[in-house]
Amino acid sequence: MSNVIKIVATLRAKPGHRAEVEQALRACVKGSRAEAGCIAYALHVDIDDPDRFVFIEAWANREAIEQHKTTTHYETMAGAVKDLLEHREVLLLEELEG
After folding, report:
1. If both were cysteines, with which of 51, 59, 80, 85 could 64 make a disulfide (CB 3.0 to 4.6 Å apart)?
2. Where are the alpha helices (DSSP H) in 11-98?
3. How does residue 97 score in pLDDT terms, banded at 50, 70 and 90?
4. pLDDT for 64-77, tens place per residue?
């Protein structure tokens, strides 16, 4: 198995808060990509449901993910969207080889 951990995080904005959520999520991307353990970090929006945002990330290991959660850009984003989300789901995935 690969040591790389992939994350798929789905966040749905409460009705009327899409723009605020998008702005807060976008603000986290550049800083996250610059982190030492970050392999990939991309924000997407659902074509058929613009209130649903999806982060697809790849991290070197669990320690890198835990460090990511302590960064200013992550904490700022999390605080900004805390009361603006209707739903949040985070999957930590490890690829099965073969």
Report:
1. 59
2. 18-33, 62-68, 72-81
3. confident
4. 999 999 999 999 99
Q: Are 15 and 52 in contact (CB under 8 A)?
A: no
Written as one letter, the residue type at 17 is H
CB distance 84 to 12 below 8 Å: no
**For residues 6, 91, 66 and 68, what is the CA-based torsion angle, rounded to 10 degrees?**
70
In angstroms, the CA 52 to CA 12 distance is: 4
Helix axes 18-33, 72-81, angle to 10 degrees: 170
Note the pLDDT of residue 86: 98
24-47 burial, b at 16+ Cβ within 10 Å, e below that, comes to: bbeebeebbeebebbeebebeeee
Average pLDDT over residues 33-57: 98
